[in-house]
Amino acid sequence: MAWDFSTEPEFEEKLEWIRRFRAERVEPLDLLYPDRAYHPLDDELGPVVRTLKQQVRDEGLWAPHLGPELGGRGFGQVKLALINEILGQSSWAPVIFGTAAPDTGNAEIIARYGTDEQKERYLQPLLEGECFSCFSMTEPQAGADPTMFTTRAERDGDDWVITGRKFFSSNARTSKFVIVMAVTNPDASPYKGMSMFLVPSDTPGVRIERHLGIMGEATDEGMHALIAYDGVRVPGDALLGGEGQAFAIAQTRLGGGRVHHAMRVVGQSQKALDMMAERALSRETQGERLADKQLVRADLADSYAQLAQFRLFVLYTAWQIDRYQDYKRVRKDIAAIKFLTPKVLHDIVYRSMHLHGALGVSNEMPFSDMWNGAAVMAVVDGPTEVHKITVARDVLRGYEAAPGLWPTQHLPTRREWARKQLEDLL
């Protein structure tokens, strides 16, 4: 079977436009407004950001993960991967192109599972790029393990009442609405007893206990939150999808997102490799360039090979999704690229940062966010260990135990078998 990652010339022209636009128009936002990407627009930034978003729309590249009926292009996963590889080098680019997490995943599941009324109320503002949303799934006592979730949603007449706490709810600080995952049938399996709800952020009972950020962000200034749901009452039509479908919806949301994250990391890793090569050619010590040092060359070679292998693996995974249209069939490889993502970013960023010496660990180079990103990628959408277990379990399904005492490739046993196979000729 041939694997074909090629795209038509017209799409290649779009990719080149994205590269130029990101470098010339979007990266200035990264430098001038590095911490404003996920905040509501003010009078200073609003006109700039809306103009850039409109230019993206004019090129037909806004929210490219969505179908034409929702204003996107309906690009498959391979094309989306190639786009995200370019966007990954800028923190503002996902916002400008309508591909920012968690909004992309939230938009996808509302588009797929939402009613017409839910799409009009929640999806349309997201697609217009004028609001942010929050995904509220993990819990302080459970992390990402759904079997330990305790947040409940109970029927009360025609309404649902949600009670519990959620931790690290993404984009809670600026979101207009929250997608909450709650137990609706405690007697059922955790994978069939939970449901998702669309909840406006200003609903009575939605209480943010505190905001939190990642390493390097000031206390109480992060974009995530510990949220208490104190008897939050929502109408019956707040249910997203069918009752008990939360786990299936979450997996739909996360599958494609892991490919997008991986290719953005490819872009970031390429940027780190570019900086490493430039530094090696520019810096001299002990009478020769760093590029002439054998250990530096070894780091460059390792980084190039590691990145090339990972990039092809991610593209192959994206190709499988496009071909089979079945995330379950590709689950093993999706999990594999997920646990490789932080490793690749960590290794290449560290080598590049280290080669820059003291300058590399200073705030005059962009390594700190990239370095933090490696740690973050190891826990978002499920920790590395969970995905390794998934891969190992699926690999083992294709094998069976040896039928006897010795392994099937035991040489004395194989030689005896070979003699019997040829005894009529010997």
TrEMBL record:
Flavoprotein in keyword set: yes
Pfam family, one: Acyl-CoA_dh_M
Quaternary structure and interacting proteins, as annotated: Homodimer.
Family matches, as PANTHER family: ACYL-COA DEHYDROGENASE FAMILY MEMBER 11, MEDIUM-CHAIN SPECIFIC ACYL-COA DEHYDROGENASE, MITOCHONDRIAL-RELATED
Domain Acyl-CoA oxidase/dehydrogenase middle: 134-217
Name of the protein in its database record: Acyl-CoA dehydrogenase family protein
Domain of life: Bacteria
Keywords linked to the UniProt accession: FAD, Flavoprotein, Oxidoreductase
UniProt cofactor(s): FAD
Family affiliation: Belongs to the acyl-CoA dehydrogenase family.
Species the sequence originates in: Streptomyces hokutonensis
InterPro entries: Acyl-CoA_dehydrogenase, Acyl-CoA_Oxase/DH_mid-dom, Acyl-CoA_Oxase/DH_mid-dom_sf, AcylCo_DH-like_C, AcylCo_DH/oxidase_C, AcylCoA_DH/ox_N, AcylCoA_DH/ox_N_sf, AcylCoA_DH/oxidase_NM_dom_sf
Residue ranges occupied by any Acyl-CoA dehydrogenase/oxidase N-terminal domain in the UniProt entry: 15-130
Acyl-CoA dehydrogenase/oxidase C-terminal domain residues: 247-395
